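User: Please fill in residues for this 199-position structure.
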């Protein structure tokens, strides 16, 4: 079973405005087969993945990589130099992403050390981290694992233009909310199974 493949297929299908029935007609399978692929109970073979990649206009390696990634709880981190922000934000993340392993850090160096030993699926980063920058931390995290989704947290709208140039998935103004986090989960560059209400 591959939740990552299921999430990716569903996202690509909806982005192309296709129903499960329409996609099944394009690749010559039953609608129930598409349903099983999208709920993670079945995987297509290599030939079918190639056909799906053509119909969805995506590189076949993108789909193949989601099949070979082992299923595990995703790692989600929040980095903010103020402990009060972490203590308020981490419970919200746990509610919004209940399937994930949630960790909080006040220092970028701690987050980098964690990322070197865990594949971080999603990182919520404060932009101003004392003497450091969340923008620089984003670049380092993406060097470690390029499929890390990064969402910036800040109280200052003026940073939004600089934030987009780093390859981030999203941008949120503080304080975060469960609804706001769930909205960000819908627009991640690299979706993953989060166990939230919208899964």
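Assistant: Residues filled in for all 199 positions:
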């Amino acid at each position: 079973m591959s939740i990552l493949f299921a999430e990716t297929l569903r996202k690509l299908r909806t982005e192309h405005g296709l129903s499960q029935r329409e996609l099944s007609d394009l690749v010559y399978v039953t609608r129930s087969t598409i349903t099983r692929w999208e709920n993670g109970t079945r995987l297509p073979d290599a030939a079918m993945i190639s056909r799906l990649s053509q119909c969805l206009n995506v590189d076949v390696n993108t789909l193949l990589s989601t099949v070979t990634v082992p299923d595990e709880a995703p790692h989600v981190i929040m980095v903010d130099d103020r402990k009060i922000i972490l203590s308020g934000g981490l419970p919200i993340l746990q509610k919004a992403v209940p399937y994930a392993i949630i960790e909080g850090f006040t220092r970028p160096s701690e987050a980098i050390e964690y990322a070197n030993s865990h594949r971080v699926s999603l990182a919520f980063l404060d932009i101003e981290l004392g003497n450091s920058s969340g923008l620089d931390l984003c670049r380092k995290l993406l060097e470690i694992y390029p499929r890390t989704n990064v969402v910036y947290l800040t109280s200052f709208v003026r940073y939004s233009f600089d934030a987009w140039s780093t390859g981030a998935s999203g941008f949120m103004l503080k304080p975060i909310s469960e609804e706001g986090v769930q909205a960000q989960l819908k627009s991640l560059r690299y979706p993953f199974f989060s166990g939230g209400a919208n899964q």
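For context: The beta strands are 75-79, 101-105, 120-126, 128-129, 132-133, 149-154, 170-173.
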